[in-house]
Prior knowledge:
The chain is α+β, with helices and mostly antiparallel strands. It is built from 12 helices and 11 strands. The chain folds into 2 domains: about 170 residues, Jelly Rolls (Sandwich); about 110 residues, Homeodomain-like (Arc Repressor Mutant, subunit A, Orthogonal Bundle), CATH 1.10.10.60.
Amino acid sequence: MKAERITLSEVTPLSDKDCFYIADRRKTEFTYPLHQHAEYELNFVECAPGVQRIVGDSNEIIGDYDLVLLTSKDLEHVWKQNECISKDIREITIQFSPDLFFSNFLHKNQFDSIRKMLEKAQRGLCFPMQGILRVYPMLDTLSEEKQGFFAVIKFMTILYELSLHADEARMLSSSSFAKVKVLSDSRRIQRVQQYIDAHYLEAIRLNTLSELVSMSPTAFSRFFKLHTGRNLSDYIIDIRLGHATRLLVDSSRSVSEICYESGFNNVSNFNRIFKHKKGCSPKDFRDNYKKVKVLI
């Protein structure tokens, strides 16, 4: 059964004839609800410590500076006032079409880092401070650029500079919640990832996965962490939690039903893992999402 509340689908001001749309504004509070849109978005927030940023199933409190790139039409996001008391908030929102870089152009060697960054940003990509400082002078003046051509060149430069810091940037939402496939460059790891995606409801054994790629369990464990940056058990838990959070948001099923429908076999264990990973209980996660959704 679907929940009664749904996410607002935003119709952005970006026209077919524009490369990007920019809104550079000073504000005292965030009031826009949880939403999603087809356009890609780069969002910068300054002087808003205490604001709550929700991107997919990621829920964080931001500091003085926040820069996030979003490239999925299905990824819900919102910046919520929360405990922020600043009266001099600056927000720069840049929205651009997915076809800004037509495919054969984006696959040229010179744009390889940008292409990889846009792929990562399907889950939301939060940039480190060094990346923010690198592009801040250009972000600060982009809306003042009078010549459209040079504004586009400056924006392209911003994306390129950020792509050089994409490896240090954090992906925010889990892939299963964001409904995106993030596959490793390694064919062996891809085979394992595809197996986990197809069998996450079942008990997944280390021996089964290691045999799948013709490696010993010990060697496979090291190999998997090297290519994904995570232990196998953490990876599987994150996949299951992504499905669980999606069910919490999109359905009215009970927590116990969602526990078993996401591959967990014990409600107490599910609640414990969920709180450890997400910082709140499954019920609180669902209630918090309802507060920032729009009743249609």
